[in-house]
Amino acid sequence: MEPITLFQNKRILLGVSGSIAAYKSIDLASKLTQAGAQVDVILTEAAQQFATPLAFRSVTGRPVYTSMWDLDDHVRHVGLGETADFFLIAPATAHTIAKLAHGLADNLLTVTALAARCSIMLAPAMDGGMYEHAATQANIATLQARGAAFAGPAVGRMASGLSGLGRMVEPPELLNAVRLALAGNGPLVGMHVVVSTGPTREALDPVRFISNRSTGKQGLAVAQAALDAGARVTLIAGPISEPAPLGVTRINVETTQQMADAVLAATQDADALFMVAAVADFRPETQSDRKIKKTEQEGDGNGGWGLAIGLEVTLDILSAVKERREKTGYPRVSLGFAAETHDAFEYGRQKLLRKGLNFIAVNDVLADGAGFAVDTNRVVLLSSAGVVEEMPLLSKTAVAERLVHHVARALGKG
Ligand code: CTP
User: Fold this and answer.
1) Is 0.70 surpassed by the pTM of this model?
2) Less Cβ crowding at N or C end of the chain, within 10 Å?
3) Residues 403-412: what's their mean pLDDT?
4) 211 and 159 in one domain?
């Protein structure tokens, strides 16, 4: 797992109560630690029936707390709760949820929850109809009214063999839920950011299309970086197979025209647009509504057949955004990409002016480690004043964070 900037130097308290799902929390503690967080684990007595303190200590490299009566642990509950950035209780059993709802403090986990000053999230795990029981639902409502967040539970097979609502959310999703919650203090809180990503497709007939090699990785990284900075993010995605980050509003499009409509609609009130999509520049002049048959083409019947396709230029989305922006002022800041194979800098500069952008991220898609379907990129960021930053070869995640940083500054944030 890659370290995540947002988790660096964050202190996360992980409270584990007694459910079979406790074994998954070892993995969760490991993932949070690998992401860069300092993870302090508190296990209830029941939790220790399912997962040992040693296992948690092994993955976090930190002491694990189990008892209020341990001489060293006794005063820690106050300190742990006061210094943590986030308190995640996973799994949260029906019993622990009930105790927290009523302010009971009979073990280190519940005592610490009462003393905690940070945000709390609970990931319920319980069997049978326990989750749906009116008592549990009332307790959850009480905790929600007090500001606690809930992740899950999910539907699936439970320890009893029954299937239903009560499984703890899987560790990767829980990590993303914590990530989203931690972003609540970022520089772009209250800002709306629109990101386009992936290719567009232009149909030739019902089975064929013109497109390009974009996989959407760089745009997804920008969407994640904007989320991490606390923004509300609308992601406009062409056909891509990679999943979108938790927390975006995703709009799927296929053609350039659909992407243009979606971008123009979403940026009506947007603070920033990152136009990362590799938009198809050409489309067939005509689209056949029936499959174009090889055997119906002109030719001599001996393999000399061919098909000439006339292409026309598609709408330039950023130019349409520029026109609207001149009238309304939205999006307030706009950033484009320039994918070039030669004379990257000069073409980039021209595009910045032609498309009315604040920034253009120029990349030479033929450079080593840059371009499509790789996890790294080499970008030079330009503004009308010249070079803003010449980045070394970086992960697409790091490039995205740099771009979001510059746009946040242009918005007067960060
Ligand atoms: N773009 C756009 N609409 C298009 C084509 C591109 O909005 N029809 C956007 C891209 O999302 C990118 C920027 O314009 O942010 C530059 O894209 P690029 O493909 O590098 O440039 P083109 O405008 O297509 O110009 P050229 O083909 O001459 O390189």
Assistant:
1) yes
2) N
3) 97
4) no
- Cα–Cα dist 361/390, whole Å: 10
The Cα–Cα gap between 392 and 378 comes to 6
How many domains are there within the chain?
A: 2
Is residue 113 located within the same domain as residue 175? Answer: yes
Q: How many CB atoms lie within 10 A of CB 68?
A: 18
The parent domain of residue 346 ranges over 188-410
Ligand 1 centroid–CA 155 distance in Å is 43
As a whole number, mean pLDDT of residues 139-151 equals 97
Bigger pLDDT: 345 vs 235: 235
Q: Do 14 and 27 reside in the same domain of the chain?
A: yes
In a shared domain, residues 194 and 94: no
Does one domain contain both 194 and 219?
yes
pLDDT tens digit string along 346-377?
899 999 999 999 999 998 777 777 767 678 88
Q: What is the CATH number of the domain that holds 93?
A: 3.40.50.1950
User: Which residue from 275, 343, 353, 354 has its CB within 8 A of the most atoms of ligand 1, so it is best to mutate?
Assistant: 275
Map 38-51 to HEC letters.
EEEEEECCCHHHCC
Q: How far is the CA of 229 from the centre of ligand 1 (A)?
A: 26
Please give the number of the atom of ligand 1 that sits closest to the Cα of 335.
15
Site to substitute for ligand 1 among 258, 273, 313, 316, most atoms within 8 A of C-beta: 316
Under 8 Å between Cβ of 224 and 197: no
Domain stop point among 152, 183, 214: 183
- List, by residue number, the catalytic residues: 212
Domain end marker among 162, 183, 204: 183
Rounded to an integer, the average pLDDT of 96-100 is 98
Q: Please report, for the domain that includes residue 377, its CATH number.
A: 3.40.50.10300
* 363 Cβ contact list (under 8 Å, min separation 6): 337, 338, 339, 340, 344, 370, 371, 377, 378, 379, 380
The Cα–Cα gap between 207 and 203 comes to: 8
**Interval 55-78: pLDDT, tens:** 999 999 999 999 887 766 556 656
CA 354 to chain centre: 31
Same domain? 351 vs 400:
yes
Residues 325 and 360: beta-carbon distance below 8 Å: no
Q: Do 47 and 90 meet the contact criterion of CB atoms below 8 Å apart?
A: no
Helix (H, G, I), strand (E, B) or coil at 298: coil
